[in-house]
Write a sequence for this structure.
């Protein structure tokens, strides 16, 4: 539905006193509120719209969280979007700089994977064609020799063909073994990477524990103000070390909005993995 059509329908609903506008600080913050809850029960299409909108918002928030976590983890390729999640992200037009980079890198990575997959399939196809052509040639040669050569020559040729087939079989077995070795190396690399990732997660969780450990002192009723200030200052230093406070932020020992916001962001991120 076009924007003009949406506005036309919305104006009619407002005139009928079925919905009302709640002005925000900016036009994008303006919200629409139902005047009568009966619309939810007597207008099934509206219910479907609301459910779709809620799902879209949830998916959009998930993309933002994934992009932020990707940045926090040093832009780890294993955290990139794939499959249907990437397809959905490509339709968003309101991406910020980090989200746009996250989606673009994910798209490039998937294209590279598809390209390598096609190259592998092409090589396998060419190998099978070459083997099939070689087999047909040997069969034709055997048929020709059977007609023109005596039994002894024919036996010799048969042994030669068997030798070629055996060599081909050995070659295929060797290739299979090499593939298995490659897979084993890949598995070892993956396990090593997982161990390193888990180590990083454990270290991050310990840092998160240090952050939350100071809260009872900060908010203690009988705690002296100079001790509170000292604990808040230590908390600010840890938040800066973890990149939740900018280097330009002052370590002043004051539990202000900037420190509170940084701590909430840290809590949100680490609660996901520190369970």
């Amino acid at each position: 539905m076009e924007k003009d059509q949406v506005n036309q329908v919305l104006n009619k609903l407002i005139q009928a006193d079925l919905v009302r506008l709640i002005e925000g600080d900016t036009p994008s913050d303006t919200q629409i509120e139902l005047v009568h809850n009966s619309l939810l029960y007597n207008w099934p299409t509206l219910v479907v719209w609301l459910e779709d909108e809620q799902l879209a918002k949830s998916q959009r928030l998930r993309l933002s969280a994934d992009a932020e976590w990707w940045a926090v983890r040093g832009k780890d390729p294993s955290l990139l979007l794939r499959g249907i999640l990437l397809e959905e992200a490509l339709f968003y037009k309101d991406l910020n700089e980090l989200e746009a980079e996250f989606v673009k890198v994910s798209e490039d990575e998937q294209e590279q994977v598809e390209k390598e997959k096609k190259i592998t399939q092409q090589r396998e196809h060419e190998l099978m064609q070459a083997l099939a052509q070689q087999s047909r040639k040997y069969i034709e040669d055997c048929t020709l020799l059977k007609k023109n050569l005596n039994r002894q020559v024919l036996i010799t040729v048969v042994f030669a063909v068997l030798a070629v087939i055996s060599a081909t079989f050995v070659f295929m077995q060797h290739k299979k073994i090499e593939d298995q070795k490659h897979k084993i190396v890949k598995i070892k690399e993956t396990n090593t990477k997982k161990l390193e990732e888990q180590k990083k997660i454990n270290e991050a969780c310990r840092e998160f524990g240090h952050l939350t450990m100071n809260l009872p002192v900060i908010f203690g009723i009988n705690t002296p103000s100079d001790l509170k200030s000292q604990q808040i200052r230590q908390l600010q230093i840890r938040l800066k070390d973890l990149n939740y406070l900018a280097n330009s932020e002052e370590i002043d020992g004051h539990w202000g909005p900037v420190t509170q916001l940084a701590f909430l962001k840290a809590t949100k991120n680490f609660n996901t993995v520190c369970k």
